[in-house]
Specification:
Porin; twelve-stranded antiparallel beta barrel; 52% strand; 286 residues; 2% helix
């Protein structure tokens, strides 16, 4: 089944008073200004809490807000033995359905704090402020409304651009960056699901003299314990100028078909990865 869905087909059907999920229905007539009716909505699917993005888009005319309410990350010591603690408050991903198979998204960190711990306390620092803004698009190539049977697949393209909002606060990125991800989902038997991402990133060099390319690959295995409770287990990697390998796990719980709670933790395995990163979040669809 889909990673991050909030209700099974049967549960969703009961809540909208229909006789069953509408799989493969023609929804091409719906758009940003002609929203998809409740009885034709696909199960809510989120891009959080894991790093692996889903290939499913928000239905046309609908809005979905996925929020990291609180996140903490502790780095590994750098070459000088400096450790940095980072706090992330209300990082929101606003996803807007444009057509049945396309969406636009805006990811913004409303506030962040970074504290360094040096052997010499006088040289420690504290940064605080708003983070950068990601502008994202997602185009589902197949599988949006035909993913109920084991063996079904879904694929999408997800280009994004990262924009600085304050290049002097130590929280926002200082330069424009971007990339392209290709999310794939596979519906496995017995409540399991597999999400895979591959992509490229164009990132600013540390000395700001130019750009370099990093490559990302992630895989997340999910399991639905009940119609409302799910877990996932993930490995995420980034290679190039930095070598990052992270293992993650977490849980999702659907309060209602359009509201999902989540919590998780990531553990870094390489020097360039954060040592630990716990977080909690909530997602809502309107």
């Amino acid at each position: 089944m889909r990673r991050g869905t909030t209700a099974s087909c049967a549960a969703a059907a009961m809540l909208v008073a229909t006789t069953g999920c509408v799989s493969g229905a023609d929804k091409s007539a719906y758009s940003l200004f002609n929203p998809t009716p409740d009885q034709l909505l696909r199960d809510m699917t989120t891009d959080r809490p894991d790093t692996t993005e889903s290939p499913f888009t928000v239905d046309a005319g609908r809005v979905q807000v996925e929020t990291n309410l609180f996140g903490f990350a502790r780095s590994r010591p750098d070459a000088d033995g400096v450790v940095t603690d980072s706090y992330e408050l209300v990082n929101a991903n606003l996803r807007i359905g444009i057509t049945s198979d396309t969406e636009i998204g805006f990811v913004w960190q409303s506030y962040g704090i970074a504290r360094s711990h040096h052997a010499d306390a006088a040289t420690s620092f504290r940064h605080a402020g708003i983070g950068g803004l990601d502008v994202r698009g997602k185009v589902n190539l197949w599988g949006n409304d035909a993913f109920e049977q084991p063996g079904a697949t879904a694929l999408a393209l997800l280009p994004f651009l990262t924009l600085p909002t304050d290049d002097d606060n130590g929280i926002s990125p200082e330069h424009v960056e971007g990339g392209l991800l290709v999310p794939l989902a596979i519906n496995l038997p017995r409540g399991f699901g597999l999400g895979i991402n591959a992509g490229v990133l164009r990132l600013k060099d540390d000395d700001a003299s130019g750009y370099h390319t990093d490559y990302v690959a992630t895989a997340a295995l999910s399991y639905e314990w009940t119609d409302t409770l799910g877990t996932y287990y993930e490995v995420a990697t980034q290679f190039g100028d930095a070598d990052i390998v992270v293992l993650g796990t977490g849980v999702t719980y659907a309060l209602r078909p359009n509201v999902q709670l989540d919590a998780g933790v990531n553990v870094g395995l390489t020097r360039d990865a954060d040592r630990i990163n716990p977080f909690v979040g909530i997602s809502t669809r309107f």
